[in-house]
Amino acid sequence: MTARIYYTDAYCQAFDARVVRAFDYEGRPAAVLDQTAFYPTSGGQPYDVGVLGGTTVVDVVDVDGEVVHVLSSPLPEGAAVHAQIDWARRFDHMQQHTGQHILSAALVRVCQAPTVSFHLGSDASTIDIASTVAPADVERAVDEANRIVWENREVAVRFASEDEAKGLPLRKESARQGELRLIDVPEFDLSACGGTHVARTGAIGLIAVTAAEKFKGGLRLTFVCGGRALRSLRQLRDAVAGSVRVLSVLPQEIPSAVEKLQADGKNLRKTIVGLQAALAVHEADRLLAVAHPADGRRVITEIYEDWDAAGLKTIASSLIARDPVAVALVTGGPTATVVVACAPSLGLDAGAAIKRLTDRFGGRGGGRPELAQAGGLSGHTGEIASAARALLER
Questions:
Q1: Which has the least CB within 10 A, 6, 105, 221, 235?
Q2: In this structure, is residue 322 part of a structural domain?
Q3: Does residue 332 sit within a domain?
Q4: What is the reported pLDDT for 278?
Q5: pLDDT computed for residue 190 by the predictor
Q6: Structural domain boundaries, residue 74
Q7: CB-CB neighbours of 341 under 10 Å
Q8: Count of domains in the chain?
Q9: Residue 107 sits in a domain of what CATH number?
Q10: Residue 227, domain member (yes or no)
Q11: Which of 64, 85, 106 is the last residue of a domain?
Q12: Both 96 and 80 in a single domain?
């Protein structure tokens, strides 16, 4: 079995080892070493990367008790190799994982809310708790967690037999059998865990919960620690500064300013709808005045650059209500929108015409025989309008 250096020395950044087995793992070169400091994906914590004997370690997995190093190029069996861990990635994982232990313990102590799962992501981490917790209580738990961080308590690693562990105050009962590796924050948390952790809580720096959402009848908390917390603060600072500059308000006034903008936007949309409805009547008059019969049928096509689908439908509906015409109206943008309307007396099917257009130009749509629409069409608006006219003139 590979000796796992990270079990007793999470701060080991470089080591020497021997390749005891070289093989392909899922189509990629891989190696098992006599000892390793590379952590394999386990317990919610991602794998380490780095350099091994001049090749890159791209993944590390635990397969039937063996630590398998997946490599960018093969290494010969029996080779003596020097390894270097990507320390920035490792230390970041240590900060997040130790922070999770402390935050989870604080949630139990303050809110009686045990953690049921943990995931360490590339930008932020999450813990799921089985019950809902009030926002104020979450903040109390965060304050308690940071108190432990700033007291710079020792984070000890020790081992216990299965029988010994039964008599210990573990935060969560372990399902593992045999000897257990325990992470101990004195007088605060004791947990069975195989992950990598900082030596003292002060190295976590800060624990910040950035989001809380209901999840599977409980609560999912998103959090960041250490360097991630600093990056998160900088992103928040830049976002607030940009909002202050654009809105010309103080930081604390941003929520009310955004609410006002939303209300103004809603009122403007109502005004636009009303103006389009009034203008639609005049547009219908104009289009009817210039429309000429084709094979005894009047077909109207027009391209509008600044109308939305609702406005086009208003014009089209007004046209077929006043005269036995067939209408195809198109508006442009990154993708086109088309509205087709047919007076019932013509015996045409607007929905069928829309299907033919989406079959040719893409997009999605549908509707009734007298009125249908589609959006997301790819193509020049003039080409789409010509194709629609050809369908209506058949």
A1: 235
A2: yes
A3: yes
A4: 83
A5: 97
A6: 3-85
A7: 30
A8: 3
A9: 3.30.980.10
A10: yes
A11: 85
A12: no
Q: Compute mean pLDDT per 10 residues along the chain, 394 residues long, and list them.
A: 93 97 96 97 93 96 94 96 97 97 97 94 94 94 98 96 89 85 96 95 97 92 97 94 93 93 92 83 86 76 87 91 91 89 92 95 94 93 93 86
Is residue 116 located within the same domain as residue 190? yes
Check residue 300 and give its pLDDT: 92
Is 376 in the same domain as 327? yes
CA distances from 55 to 13, 44, 52, 175, 245 (A): 16, 26, 5, 36, 49
Give pLDDT, residue 296: 65
pLDDT for the residue numbered 269: 86
Asked whether residue 155 is domain-assigned, the answer is yes
Q: What is the pLDDT of residue 178?
A: 85
Residue 322: the pLDDT is 85
- For the domain that residue 357 is a member of, what is the CATH number? 3.10.310.40
